[in-house]
Amino acid sequence: MTIAMRRAQRGMSLIEVLVAVAIGMIGILIMSQAYLTSDQFNKATLGAGGAQTNGNVALFTLEREIRMAGYGMNNAAALACGNINWYYNGQYSGNLGGSLPDVELAPVVIKTTPGAPDQIQIMYATGEQRVTPGTLDKTMPNASSELTVDGTSGFHENDMVLLVNNTPPISCTMVQLTQIQAGSSHLQHNPGVTAPYNPPGAGLFPAYKKNDSALNLGNPIVRSYQIVNDSLRVNEVYFAPGAAGPTANLDLVDGIVDMRALYGKDTTATADGVVDVYDNIKPTTGDDWMRVLSVRIMVVARIGNYERPTGANCDATTTAPTYTYENPVGTPQTATFNWTDFTDVTNQARCYRYRVFETTVPVRNIIWRYS
Length: 371
Fold this sequence. Notes:
Elements: H1 2-8, H2 14-68, H3 76-79, E1 87-88, E2 91-92, E3 108-111, E4 119-124, E5 134-135, E6 147-148, E7 160-164, E8 172-176, E9 179-181, E10 186-188, E11 213-218, E12 221-228, E13 231-238, E14 250-254, E15 256-265, E16 277-279, H4 286-290, E17 292-306, E18 322-326, E19 332-336, E20 352-362, H5 364-367
Antiparallel strand pairs: 1-2, 3-4, 4-12, 5-11, 6-10, 7-8, 7-11, 9-10, 12-13, 13-14, 15-16, 15-17, 17-20, 18-19
């Protein structure tokens, strides 16, 4: 009896222990592999979701701005003037030899640089202003003279007014209204502390003649969008009256590495209001600008998952990605993204995955023009 009890209390043998340990290790390996696989799927899902969100936010931001582009300035004569003459607190715009940035009168300006993302500059008027242009009833004796117009309705103090001569060569000058004299139909643009956009004695500004136009821009918005350090950045090119200066560059969306834009143009002789071609050739005349009916935008968003290379360098393709789009004439066109990181064999940025987002935005304030 005692011998039998002793044999029952001996416990597990070494072989049984080793078998149990082996089974446990196999179980741990299986669970670890399952955890790592699940974690990779989780990171892939989160990375793709983040890129999806960033791409959509970037497109939404640009689309919202482009839908406003051209408001209050859809006049063929004004759109032919190119860079605006403007002044602020002792400085002139670059086209007049000053240090202020040049502001081109155009709803959307696409700036292209080989090997770099495109830049998009957007301009529109704001506020409760007169939509149709006023007309000068008298020739200005000199550039500092008050403006005599066909009516003061829709003009307000501190509004920015764009003066446009209607005979070539076309030039545009922006002044700030300081007083509205409804009885005599006069608009004053006196210099002073409260009117930093008016140079003393009109400075380098030209005078304008009878029948020239006066467009009320209210508080114009001029914003430039570009890709800097893999982020969508906005810069306030022109700043509103009362501001201390231009707003600092603001990064809006991370993970955006490239941007392309194309004008949608109506090229038919009769201007039938239908987009015929997409390209990035900037219009040069007022009529050409009035034929820009839409803007096509493409942005590339980076997915945050790093694909581990098999060698010292990333083994992804060095062929720059392309996108194909249908032209209204029915012939597909292919364009290539210019982001240099795609083609640089030593750049580890190619070890990430990317997504392309695209949309077409109507320039409605040109489509719904009054002239």
